[in-house]
Design brief:
This is Spore coat polysaccharide biosynthesis protein/ GNAT family acetyltransferase SpsD. The chain is α+β, with helices and mostly antiparallel strands. The protein is 33% helix and 34% strand. The protein has 2 domains: 110 residues, 3-Layer(aba) Sandwich (Aminopeptidase); 151 residues, Gcn5-related N-acetyltransferase (GNAT) (Aminopeptidase, 3-Layer(aba) Sandwich). The chain has a 12-stranded mixed beta sheet with strand order 1-2-3-4-5-12-6-11-10-9-8-7, with helices on both faces. The two termini are 36 Å apart.
Length: 289
C-alpha cells in the first residue's frame, strides 16, 4: 500500500538518490515522498517561488527534482502533489525533468494543463585563463548609474527562455521577470557583475552566482547591433578569470537547446555538455489547447 508523506528526511532522500545513481544539484525548500511499506519509492522536491509570484502576481511553485522507481509510482506521486496545488489555488507549476527520464517527461506531458516550454542544456568546465584584451570596449564593475541601462538591456534579450514560450504569460510579463532578475543581481544577489561599455554606452553585461563548488553564469546579454563582435566571449572570459570564479571547481552555464549561438560560444571556450532537461509549465486552473 502506498502512502504520500511531506518533509522526507534528508538522509532518506540522499539514500534514495544514491540507490538510483542520480545527482541532486539544485537547492529545494519542500519534499514529498511516495512510500510503500515504509520504503521510499519516489521523491518530489519543490519550492514556493515567492519572487516569481510577486513579479507575475500569481502563485508559482517550482518542482526542482522528480524521480521514482517506476513510471506508475512517479505518476501517483505527481498526481498527489498536483491535487494539493489545485486545492491551494496555485496558478502555475514549473517543472524541470531530465531529458533522459522519458517516464517523467511522459507523466508531465499527460497533465491536462501542461505546456512544454523548452529544452535546457547544462555545460561545465574548470576555471582557466584566456588572457585576451577586448578590442574596442571596456569591461568593468557596473556603477550605480548603470543600473537602468543594464536592466533595459535585459528587455527582449532572453526571448528563447521558457517564460516567452508560455502562452499564458505575456511578453510584457516575461520581460519584467528578466529586468527585475537583473536588478536583483545588481543589488547583491550575484557574486559577480560585469558590464561592457563602448564610449560610455552599456553594450553588454554578465552576472554570475556562487553555489558550493560551482560558479554559475546566471545572465548574459549583448545589446542589439553589437552581436558578432566577441562581446559575449570577452564577458565570459572575464567572468571565468575573476578571483571569485577561480576559487570554484567548475564554471557552469545553462542555455536553451535551440540557442545554437550560445552553445557554440561555450564549446569554443572549453565547456562540455553535462546534462539536458525538459521544462514544462502546468496551469492547474486552465485547459491546455
Amino acid at each position: 500500500m502506498y502512502t504520500v508523506k511531506e518533509n522526507v528526511s534528508k538522509e532518506a532522500i540522499e539514500e534514495f538518490i544514491q540507490r538510483r545513481q542520480l545527482t541532486l544539484d539544485v537547492p529545494y525548500q519542500f519534499s514529498l515522498g511516495l512510500f510503500e511499506n515504509s520504503r521510499l519509492q519516489g521523491i518530489l522536491l519543490y519550492e514556493d517561488s515567492l519572487w516569481e509570484s510577486r513579479m507575475l502576481q500569481k502563485k508559482v511553485m517550482n518542482v526542482k527534482f522528480l524521480a521514482a522507481n517506476s513510471a506508475g509510482q512517479l505518476k501517483r506521486l505527481f498526481q498527489a502533489f498536483y491535487s494539493v496545488r489545485q486545492m491551494d489555488e496555485t496558478d502555475f507549476i514549473s517543472v524541470r525533468v531530465s531529458a533522459e527520464d522519458i517516464g517523467a517527461a511522459h507523466v508531465i506531458q499527460q497533465q491536462p494543463s501542461s505546456y512544454f516550454v523548452g529544452s535546457l542544456l547544462k555545460l561545465a568546465k574548470p576555471p582557466s585563463f584566456y588572457d585576451k584584451t577586448p578590442p574596442f570596449f571596456e569591461l568593468g564593475t557596473p556603477e550605480p548609474g548603470d543600473t537602468e541601462a543594464i536592466c533595459e538591456l535585459a528587455r527582449d534579450s532572453f526571448t528563447k527562455s521558457r517564460y516567452f514560450q508560455d502562452p499564458h504569460l505575456s511578453r510584457e510579463a516575461a520581460n519584467k521577470i528578466f529586468q527585475e532578475w537583473t536588478r536583483n543581481n545588481l543589488n547583491g544577489r550575484a557574486a559577480v557583475n560585469i558590464v561592457a561599455k563602448h564610449n560610455g554606452e552599456v553594450i553588454g553585461y554578465l552576472q554570475g552566482l556562487s553555489r558550493g563548488d560551482e560558479s554559475i553564469l546566471d545572465l548574459m546579454a549583448v545589446k542589439p547591433g553589437f552581436e558578432g563582435k566577441r562581446i559575449a566571449f570577452h564577458l565570459l572570459a572575464n567572468f571565468i578569470e575573476q578571483p571569485e570564479t577561480q576559487e570554484h571547481k567548475t564554471v557552469t552555464a545553462e542555455t536553451q537547446l535551440h540557442n545554437v549561438r550560445a552553445i557554440r560560444l561555450y564549446e569554443r571556450m572549453g565547456f562540455i555538455a553535462e546534462q539536458s532537461y525538459y521544462n514544462y509549465h502546468i496551469w492547474p486552473g486552465k485547459e491546455a489547447k
